[in-house]
Each structure stands twice: as C-alpha cells, then as structure tokens.
Amino acid sequence: MFDLPEIPYLLTLLIVIPLIGAIVSLAMGGEKQKHAKTVAIAFSAVTLVLAVYLMLSNDYSVYTENYSWIETAGLKMSYILTVDGLSILMVFLTALLLFVVSIFSAHETDKPNYFFALLLAMEVGLMGVYMAGDYFLFYIMWEVTLIPMYFMISWFGGPRRHYAAIKFFIYTHVASLVMLIGIFALAFQAAQGGLVDFSFEAVLAGSGAFGETFQMLVFGLLFFGFAVKMPIVPFHTWLPDAHTEAPTAGSVLLAGVMLKMGSYGIIRVCLEALPQGAQQWQTIMFVVAIVAILYGAYACIAQKDLKKMVAFSSISHMGMVMLGIACLSDVGVEFAIFQMFAHGLVTAVLFMTCGMAGHNFGTREIPLLGGMAGKVPVYAAFMMFGFMASLGLPGLVGFWGEFGVIFAFYEYAYSIDMIWLIVFCLMSLMLTAGYYLWAMQRTLFGRLTDRIDTTHVHDVNKAEGIAMGIMCLMIAVFGLWPDLALSLISQYSTGLFGVI
Amino acid sequence: MFIEYTWLVPLIPALCFVLVGFFGNKMGKTGGGYLAIAGVAVSCLLSVLISYEFFTSAAYASPGYYTESMTWFTFPGGFEITIGFYVDTLACLMMMFASFISMLIFVYSLGYMGEEGKRKRRYFAEVALFVTGMLGLAISSSFIEMFIFWEIMGLCSYLLIGFWSFNHPEGDDKADNAASAAKKAFLVTRLGDVSLMGGLFVMLYAFGSLDYTVVFDAANIASVDHNLIIIACLLIFGGVIGKSAQFPLLDWLPDAMAGPTTVSALIHAATMVKAGVYLVARCFPIFCEASSVMLLVAVIGGVTMFFAATMAMNNMNIKKVLAYSTLSQLGYMFLALGAGGYMIAIGIETGDTALIAAGSLGYTAGCLHMVNHAFFKALLFLCSGSVIHSTGTEDMREMGGLGPKMKVTSITMLIGSLSIAGFPFFAGFFSKDLIIEQALHAADYGTAGWIFIVLWALAIITAFMTAFYMFRMWYMTFRGPEGPKTQHCHGESPKSMTVPLMVLSIFAFGFGFVLLFGFDGLLSINVDLATGQFFVGGGHAEGLEYLVEFFTNPWTYLTIVLVIAAIIIAKFMYDKRKINPGKFNKNGTSWLYRALASRWWFPELYNQVSWKLGYGVARGVDYVDRNIVDGAVNGLSNAVVGSGDILSKAQTGNVRNYAAVVLGGIVVLFVVILALFYFMGGL
Predict the structure, then answer these.
(1) How does A296-310 read in b/e, with b if 16+ C-beta sit within 10 Å?
(2) How much is the CA Rg of chain B, to the nearest whole Å?
(3) How many independent structural domains does chain A possess?
(4) How far apart are CA B278 and CA B243, in angstroms?
(5) B668 contact A CB<8A
C-alpha cells in the first residue's frame, strides 16, 4: 500500500520477538511475576507494529528469507520465511489477537509468568506456520503451536481440563502426523528420485510429476490433516471440549488463529500443489462444508453453555470457509480467506464476552442467566455487537465473508444448473440469527435471574473494555472498508483458478 | 448545489447516533435528544432542498434521476459493488416524509420518554441510527447498499422493541414479553432478509452489478435470462413480505407493540414497514417483467389486507388494533402496486400504452397511500401514546369517556381515524379509493384478471371493517361510559406531545389533495415502448379531473356508504351502547371470535414450526454429536488404550498409553502410505 523502507530480517523478527518475550516472561518468577503482563503487552505490541508495517508495505517479496538448514546428499530442508497476500492477513490477525489477548488477560493472577509465556510461545508457532516457505519448517511450527496450547488448557483450564487437553493434543497430533505423511509424499514424489527439497517452491516446481491417482490420495491425506484442525464435521469433537475448558485467552487464540491453520493449509498446500486432487475432491468438500455449516448451526441451538455454543458456531463459520475453498474459483478462495480473517476478528469478541460470563457472573450456563443487561450494560453491548457481527449484519466484517462465499457458491451452483443449492446456505444464515438471538434473549434480557446470586456480578473492567473495544473497532473498519483486506487477498487469489 | 451532497442526508443522523451514543448523558437531561432532533431537522431541510433542486433540474425530465456512485470494491470476474446515491421522485418523496415524520416523533419523544432518565441516551442514539437506515435506504444507489440500510433498520427495530426488555418499569412479565417480541421481530424479518439476499446473488451474477442504473437498464434486462429475473423478483419479494409484515410473515408486527409507542409510530407504522413498499415500487422495471409476479404481489397484499383487518375487529389493546390496521393498510399498498404492475406488464406484452398509463395510476396510488398512511398512522399511534401516557393502560376497556379530559388528543385522533377510514376528502379517501378503482380496473385484463374481482371485493369489505374497528377504538377510548382508569388519568399531555399531533393531523387531513395538484404526474411510472426503458415521473397529471372521476363512479358511493354505515354501527355499539357486541360473538365463545383472538393461529404456527424445525432438529443433532460422533472418538481411544474411562486415565497422568495410540497410528499410516507408493511406483 505504501512505499515503506525495508526493515532487515523483518519476518525473522516477527518470530524472534515473541520468543524472547516468552523467555523473559517465563524467567519472571516470584515477586516479579505480576509484571509478566507488561512484558507480554510490550512484546506483542512491538510484534503488532512490525506486522502492520509489513502489511502496509508495497512489496512483500523483498522480505523473503532463505537459508539452507539441513542439507545432505538426498535431503534439503531450509529456513524459508515468506509472506504473500494469503499469509499477510493471518500474520496481522495473529499479532493483533496476541496483543489484544495480552491486554484482556491483564488481571490474570494465577502464575501469570507461565500464562503469558505460553501465549507468546503460541505466537511464535503461529507466525512460523503462516510465514513458512518450507514444508519441514511448516510442520515443525505446526507442532510448536500444539504444545503451548496443550499446557494452556491443562494448567489454566476448567474442571475437565485434563480430558480436554489430552483429547485436543492427541486428536490434532494424529491429524498432523497424517499431514506429515502427505508432506513426505509430496516432497519425495516431486523430487523424482533426485534431491528431496522440502521448500514450497521446489515441490511446486516438481508438481508436474503428480499423477492423477497420486493427487487424489495425497490430497485425501493432507485434507484429513487440515480438516481436523479447521475443524470439519465429523472430526470436530475435540473443539467444543477444548473451548469449554480453555481459559478465555486460549479460546480466543484457538478459534481466532489456530483453526485458520487448517484452512490456510488447505489453500496453501492442497490447492496450490494438488489442483487436480482438489477437482476430484470437490464434491466431497462441498458436502462436508454444507454439513459442517448446518450441523454446527443446529448444534449451537441446543447448547446450554455459552462458550460451547460459540465453539459450535466456529464450526459452522469455518464450514463457510470450506465452502468458499470448495468452489475452486477466484471469488470462492478470495472470500474464503476473507471469511477466515473476519471470523478471526469476530470470534475473539465472542469468546471474550462468553468467557467473561464465567468470571463475572460465576456461570456460563444459559438457563441460569437472564436479564443481565440491566446489571452489566457495557458487557451486554459488547456481547450484542459480537453476536450481530457474527450473524452477518451488513456493514460489519462478517457479512462480506458470508456474502462473498455464498455468491461464489451460487456461481458454482449456476454453472451446474442447480441454483437451489444455495438454499442450504441461506438456511444457515437463518439458523445463525436464531441461536444468537435466542441466547441473548435468555442471558441478557427478560427478568433478572434469581437462579444465581447476582449481587456480586461486575461489569467489564478497563482492560477488558479496551481489548474488546479494539476488536469491535476492527470489525467495523473492515466491515465498512472491506477492500482494505480484499485488495491484499486478491494479490494472492486472482488467477489462482480463474473465473467459473 | 445541494443534490451533490445527498449523501449527507443519512450521514447527519449517523453522526448524531455516534455523538449521542457515546456522550448523550453529558448533554443535559434530554440525553442528547435535542441533538438528535437538530440532526434529523437538518436532514429534513436538506431533503426538501434536494428535492426542489431535483424537480427543477434537467435531470428530472431526462433521464428522470440523478445519481452519483463509486466502486466500493470488485469481485474477481468483474462483479462490481458500488455505493452512492440515487435521487428520483420516489427517493425524494421517501426522504422528505421519513425525515419530517421522524423529526416530529423525536419532538414527541421528549415528552413521552421524559421519565426514562439515563436511558434516554440509548433511546435517542438508537432512533437516530434508525433514521440513518431509513434515509439511507431512500437514497441508495445499489441493491447492496439498500440491503445494508435495510438491515440497519432491522437491527434498530430489534433494539427498540426490546427497549424495555430488561428493568421494565411495569414489571418482569413485560420485560420477558419485550425480549421475546424483539427476538421474534428480528427472526421473522430475517427470514425475509435471507430471501432478499438470495435475490441479490441471483441479480449480481446475472447483471454483474447491483447498481440501480445497471439493473434497471432495459438493454441489460433484455440480455438476462427471463427466468432468472422472475426468480430474483420472487426472492426479493420474500424480503418485502418479511419487512412489511405481509402474509404469511405478518405476525411479528403485533408483538412488536411491546416497544415504546413512539417506536411503534416511527418504525412499525410510518417508516420501516414501508421499506417493502418502497422496494417493490423501486423494482418495477424488473417486477413488471412478468405479470404473474405482480399478480402475486397483489394477492399477498389483498390477503393480508383482509386477514389483518379481521384481527383488529375484536382486539382490546389500543396499540394492537393499530398494528393490525397497519398490516391491513400495507396490504392495500401492495394491492395497488400489484394491480398497477399487472396492468403495466400486460400493457408491455400487448404494446398498449393506454394500459401502461392506467397501470401507472396503481403505482401512484400505492405510493400515495404509503405517504398518507405514514401521516395518519403516525398520528394515530402518537395519539394512542398520549392516551397511554395519561392513563397508564393499553386496554381500551379501562379507558372510555376520555374525550373531555384530552381534547387535543381526541380531536386529532378523530381526524386520523376519519382519514384511515377513507372518509371523503380526508387524505386516506383519495388514495384508498384510487386503489379500489385500480383493483377493479385490472380485472379486465389477462387470463388471471378474475382474481382481481375477488381482491376488489375484499378491498371494499376491508374498507368497511377499517371504518368499523377504527371507530370502535375511538368510541371505546374517548366516548361511552368512563372506564376504571379514566378517573386517574393525568389529563392532556404536555405541549411537546400535542404540537406534533396537531402538525400531523394537518397532513393526515390534507395530504390527499396533492393528487389534485399534479402528484400523479410527478410520481408516475412510464415505459418507453421502443426501448422498454422504465422511468419515474414526467407523467400526465389529471389534477382536478380526479374529483369528477371519483364522484361519477358509482362504486365510490358504495364505499362511502359502507364507511359511514360502519361508523354509525360502531357508535351504537360502543358509544350509545344500544347494540351489545356480545350478541355477535356469543359473548366471546363463537369460533370466529376465538379464531381472531388467537390471531388465526399464526403465533401457534410459528411456535410449532420454529420449535420442531429449530429446536427439535437441534436436540437431535446434539444427541448425535455427543453420543455417536464423540462417542466414536472416545470409543476408539478406549479400544486402543484397552481400558475404561479416558477421563480417569488422563487424570492419572498415564500419558504412555496415549503415546502408544499415537505411535500405533503412525505405524499404520506409514504402512498405508508405503503401500500406496509401491502401488503407484513412486519409490
């Protein structure tokens, strides 16, 4: 966007700064641990500034870093960091959410040095995943994100935290092993018996050697690996448990940026390297996407725990991302990426408000609440804003994601002469409005509940207000000016598949 | 010089929304009310200036609109999303009456909401945002922009219906009721909005843009598949049905009366529910592609008009009576637009210019009734608000004999009632009579013309019912024996409330006369048969000839006689109490009475559908999710680990077993992949 002077090693800095922050925070034991939050906010703020600087730069290619890492006669793994229109928004989102979450969690008193170290460690892994230009590095960073999240849930989580943490870890770990096999298959097949180079470029260059059957099978492996992360029904059951038990900050990061690793992987790896495989799997992708959208939405209606409801809504909205991807068209991919970004912004507010219900009211059970708007008006305003953004109120960011994706799907449905298919998508919009409004009716409005003690209920504190305020502002800005994100995305997605 | 700044019209209230929303309570005890009034007054003034400039400009003669728009962003494949403003006669009319009525209602709110304390900030911020939505809708230059404002109005409607959904001054039951009504209003209109959104997809793909100038261009319409346009029209009409509360999505509106009366007047009578009428009028160039679409519009309108009127007949809640009458009057508008559009569609098919001119009159009648209704229904609601404010009840049985105590309210409400009943020379008379005439006229054309005979008959019966229930309401409130609350009423409302009533009553009486001074020429729709291009305005104005036309038509007298008869019957029933209404409904036990009291079972239907299709399926999905999908996951892990509860394992920290699971998985998958490579000769 602007012609900004180049900062050397900028991409590495985006990984190293949070890493240093994590170490510093971890080292602040004993008396000093109450300053851990300052460390986290400072380091994540610097990262955010750099990420924004990067995003506003004209040309991302100058920042690519490429160093050989492990090189033997037969294998080559490199340290490649690179950024393009697809990853830049994810990098920005990661940096933004980390910063916001650090502010939000400023009142964390239980072992804050560990807590903030884990947060920053997660940022290291996430940044690595989104910037990696080498499959091996990608895989390592992918695994790096798992560990801090595992500890985040099992140390700072709710009553069933051990179950949820283990389930999260094993489920997604098995999936990433499947993905690893897929990656090996890609790299070895592309090498054709020569030097096995794990860089994205080398694999892409050798992708001519991917036969039809190979594409189909390897696409399946990788797709499974990524779909669990997204998550796609029926491989989603780790998510509601992980969310219900994770602390609020963990949930925000989990839903806001970690789930996007799955859809990012599908676009980056599956679509780029295996376009034929994608064609072969297209119908299945459509089916799973629509099932995820409707299944998630219906499951939301039945949930009693606010956070679990939002977790299922993530499944539904990530299904929307899947639907965009499945269209295999420029519009579809562009808006799938936009929807990823939009969902990241919106879901942060949702998890913050729903998580706060636990801290501030003592319970997140919808049937126990009621009439809270009179007690906590600021909280109610944020919750309503988040819900409205999530149900796709036009003028806010969520609308454009859904609008674009459904439009892409309409385009596809038109091309196969079955435009009635969009009825499923439209139905999901209706269901989404239904569960959110019903939840608001039962928690915020009506008579004040007498099922819990409401005398000690307190409203949003300053740190939480600032954190949510920033997110709401972003939701409005990108909603009113979607081109801010779309112009970046289109640099990547235009011409990827062409127009249907 | 003003028309370039049309975008300011919705922007000024938007600014007021932000300022009042954040700083309202620092602006004195009106909570930012004065700022909101000032903002909407500026918008109103600007609307008038813009309209004047437009009507005197060259753009009015040709092409009939003035538009400026820019590309907001584009989709890959050249699909353009534009944003801007589009000024034509319809837009001018819309923004003038919407901003004017809003301003009056804001002033009235100073008195009506006077006891709300700090909550006034929220009230004025939300109504300012609402006005932004309404004015934005009026001047939008593309469907997508229109849809955004359309939804903003829906949001404000939700927020304002639920204004008392917590800490209700009259207790918890009312709060629950308001919360439920707000949800219902949003969801039912959302159903329509989702349909409208579907229409937008169809059109965006077909036309490559949603800009009005592109979509309404005859050459573009001709190049698009005819069936797609019909599908788009039907989907758009689905949105209209939701927003304007037409059959079968009509039942949210009576519930919406749980909000403050000013909100009912502004949103649920004068402006937002007109958005659907506006949209149909706006979409004439595509709706007229098929006479069947227009027939549907007319039938839906006619059915709603009749059914809603029946439900008003025995309701005891003053606001609900008005709500049903709103539905019924909206039905009239759709009947008019449908009949006019039907004639235009057939006129285009047969190349009959006279028929197109006749159809244009239906368009004019629908739009005129829209404005007239905005005036008299806003007036009626505000009057009812004045009564409620004074007596503290909405139940008409507790009122009665209020006339002497509330002179201004009773007289202005009488004017409003006469106007809505269609008493000669009141505003409602002109538009309603024109509509009834149009319905009969349309019956002469096309194979489906006979349907219009039925609709015409319904329209006349409804006119009778309208006069009856309005005067039933008026007599029950202001005449007859005094009710229990009459003694304790606070007398006439303050000036801030009565002055808007008086201003509105002038319009409720007199606005119909615009028809005699060339309104039909200004707001007509014409088709250039050579190119098929539609354009608004520039039509032939019949002026005073209408008077001759009305009073030489024998059917006019039938309507007038029925209206007067209805008023007299109401007087004998509810003022003189000579006729006992109980005779007709077997004291509330007849099936018809029960059907009406349960609103033709619409609420029941909604509940059943949403409960079964929504919650029922959801419970099923939840069960499957817990027991089958997640059950399989837990079952698998138990089978592999070879022990009972995964939870207890996790808590004992027995991670080795999980490591075994992982390792086992890896081995299996490696074998699979190696086999795969072997099979394909990759290694």
Answers:
(1) bbbbbbbbebbbbbb
(2) 29
(3) 1
(4) 11
(5) no
What's the rounded Cα separation, in Å, for the pair A446 and A367?
Answer: 12
Task: Determine whether the interchain pair B651/A430 forms a contact, defined as Cβ–Cβ distance below 8 Å.
Answer: no
Show the low-confidence residues of chain A (pLDDT under 70): 498-500
Other Cβ atoms closer than 10 A to A174: 19
Domain ranges of chain B: 290-519, 603-680
Dist CA B243 CA A397 (whole Å): 23
CA distance A79 to A66: 6
B167, containing H or E segment: none
Name the residue among B310, B172, B355 with its Cα closest to residue B593. B310
- Residue B367: phi and psi, rounded to 5, are -70, -40
What CA–CA distance (Å, rounded) separates A493 from A474?
23
Domain region containing A498: 280-500
Option in B187, B198, B629 nearest A426 (CB) = B198
Three-state SS at B395:
strand
Predicted pLDDT at A485: 92
Per DSSP, A176 falls in state H
ipTM attached to this prediction: 0.93
Nearest to B423 by CA among B548, B326, B559, B325: B559
Q: Is B653 helix (H, G, I), strand (E, B) or coil?
A: coil
Give the residue on A whose Cα is nearest the Cα of B172.
A447
Quick check: helix, strand or coil at residue B211?
Answer: strand
Q: Which of A289, A267, A269, A399 is nearest to A345 (CA)?
A: A399
Q: Which helix (H) or strand (E) holds A444?
A: none
Q: Give the pLDDT of residue B212.
A: 93
Query: Any idea what the Cα angle at residue A225 is, between residues A270 and A11, rounded to 5°?
Result: 65
Query: Alpha carbon of B31 to those of A195, B21, B110, B124, B126: distances in Å?
Result: 73, 9, 10, 7, 12
How far, in Å, CA of B56 to CA of B620, rounded? Answer: 64
pLDDT of residue B683: 40
Check residue B207 and give its pLDDT: 92
Q: Tell whether B644 lies on the interface with A, counting CB pairs under 8 A.
A: no
pLDDT of residue B125: 93
Q: Does residue A94 lie in a domain region?
A: no
What is d(CA B673, CA B679) in angstroms, rounded to the nearest whole number? 10
d(CA B18, CA B23): 8
Dump strand ranges (E) for A242-285: none
Give the bridge partners for B67, in sequence order. Answer: B86
3-state SS assignment for residue A418: coil
Size of interface A-B (CB pairs under 8 A): 193
**A7/chain B closest Cα distance in angstroms:** 31
Report yes or no on A231 lying in a domain.
no
Closest C-alpha to B253, from B268, B272, B235: B268
Tokens of B84: 């801007």
pLDDT at B677: 52
Q: Are strands B525-528 and B79-87 parallel, antiparallel or unpaired?
A: unpaired
What is the C-alpha to C-alpha distance for residues A304 and A365, in angstroms, rounded to an integer? 6
Amino acid A267: pLDDT: 93
Q: Are A11 and A41 in contact (CB under 8 A)?
A: no
Q: Judge whether A445 lies within some domain.
A: yes
CA angle at residue A293 from A287 to A295, to 5 degrees?
90
Q: Which residues of chain B have a pLDDT value below 50?
A: 643-644, 646-653, 681-683
Instruction: Please write the tens of the pLDDT for every residue from B198-241.
Output: 999 999 999 999 999 999 998 999 899 999 999 999 999 999 99
B248 preceded by a cis bond (ω within 30 of 0): yes
CA–centroid distance for A190 within its chain? 30
Name the closest residue on chain B to residue A491, using Cα atoms: B76
- Does residue A416 lie in a domain region? yes
**Cross-chain CB nearest to B176 (options A163, A167, A446):** A446
The model's pTM: 0.92
